[in-house]
Structure formats: C-alpha cells, structure tokens
Amino acid sequence: MADLERVKRQFEAVLHNVTDDVRSQLLCWIKCKINSGEWGDVTKENSNEDVMLESIQSDLRSELPVNAMSQTESIHFPQTGPNADCDPNTTVHVDAFLYDDDAIDDLCEEGKMSRSYCTRCGSQEVQPLTFITHSASATQVKYIFNYALPDLSGKIVLDVGSRTGAVLYGAYLYSKAKHIVGVEIDSTFTRLQTAVVAKYNMADRIQVIHDDILNQGQLLMSSDVVILNNVFEFFVPKDLQEKLWIHLFATLKNDTILVTIPSLEESLQPLKTGINLEKCVESIDLTAPLQQGRQELLDCDDTDDSDLTRINLYRVLAPHSPCQ
Hints:
globular, single chain, Rossmann fold, seven-stranded mixed beta sheet, 14% strand, 13 helices
C-alpha cells in the first residue's frame, strides 16, 4: 500500500507540473493504453446508466430495420444548403444511437450494409455512400448531459423531433432534469418511445407527445433546454422549415439553452427567415467541456472527435420574430 500511495503522489506531481494541453494528452494516452488491453484487463465497468442505455439500444434495434426508418415518415432531401448534394440513390440513413461506427463495420462484414456503391455495374469503380443520421449517438448524448450542459435540477428539457428517444433517455439517466419532453410527429416513433419509457419505468420524468411542434407553443415557452438535432432539414420542405424556425425564435423565452446539431448558422444559412442570430442568441463556449469529454468518452487522443465538435450550445437573448 505504501508503494501505491507513493506512486499516486508522484503521478499527481507530474500532472501538476505540466501544461493543461500536455496533461490532457497524457491522460488520453493512458486511457488509450487501458482500452487497448496493453496493460492487461484494467478497464472500468460500465455504470448502471450505461448498462440501461445499452439495453434500450438493443430493444430498439430489434424493433426497427437497419436504416431505422419508419413506414409512416416521409423524407425530403434538401435542395439547398450543405446537404443539397445528398443523392437519394446513394444516401444511407443510419441511426447513430443504434449503430456506432463499430456496429456499422459489423453490419458491412455481415453483408447487411455497405459503405460504398459501384459507379458502373460490374466494375471496381466505387464511391463511398453518404451516411445520414437523424439521432444523436450514445456518445453525443453522454457528452451533452454529463459535460456540455449545466446542472439541470428542476429544469424542463424539450427534444424537438425526438425520434427513437435517445435524448430523452440520456436526459433521464445522466441529468437531474425535472421534466423531459419529446415532441415527435411520426406515430411509429411515438409508440416506440412510449413503450421504452414504460418498460424502463421512466414515466415519472419523461413525457412523449405525438404532435407538430407548431402546436406546442406553451411547451416551448416553458422549456429551459431545447434540443434541435438535425431537426427539420430532411423532413419538411424549405418553406415549412422557414416557418418552423421563425415560430421557434418567436416563442422561446429568454435564457433558454439551445443544443443544436449542426450549428444554427449552418441550419439557417440556406433559408429566408429574417432571423438575426447575433441579436437572438449568444454562443456558449464549450472549450472546457469538450476537453473533458474527449478525455472521458473517446478512446484515444487521436480518435475522431467530430461527434462532439458538431454539438453547439446557445443562450436565447431575445425571443422576437424575426429577431431584428
């Protein structure tokens, strides 16, 4: 035991005498060594929350096809903006909450999915398929509620377009939010979420509403945190997207925190809303949460962190339409 305490003190002294950047890289290197098994079986066990989330993921996989699409939803491929190049013939819908990159690799090996398509049948001229997800991944969910957001005790969290419910379950498991609401217009996903909430006894804090967000003005006004993950672009035509965004910014109260994937700037750029973001919202700095999230959630320092960096936080300043 004396040796262990001495090593602890030496290790803490090393961390204390290096820069924040070096400390971060060192901790990520240690985590990478642990996860790789190079130092033996010293990985930590999953928390009860992680185990429950994994169980929910397994349940949902058994209820949905690999592309996690429902027969009752309609998809509108964007004609403008950064995703306007998505070709319906070469775009694959995949739910990031249900299938991470490793799971997709497994599906490809099993022949249930492909990452590329042939540009000329019978040849070796192949191009990568475009993968689109309409849900937050498990890593994103954990990052949002464990690191990015402040303490949510007594707060109301709203997920607009809650789909499979990933954000709802994450808010329940990883935060102390008082009330968690998902508004979903698709009946299939509403039923799925309701079934999961009932099975895992989450109805004390989670509510699933089958409705159009345009009809939920009072809920929008009362929410402290609103999640907007790839929310409108692939589901409604451009004119309705504009109407929805204008309605949101006319309804949200001051100090509401918006969590968006992608950024508001990217979402609104191809639309004609008249919304002046500089007057409507202020961006919340995520430098410290991002550094901590990288250390805790990603395997190695050189692991792709785009899942985390695509998450943006804003504080609403002026809920006026069109915020001019």
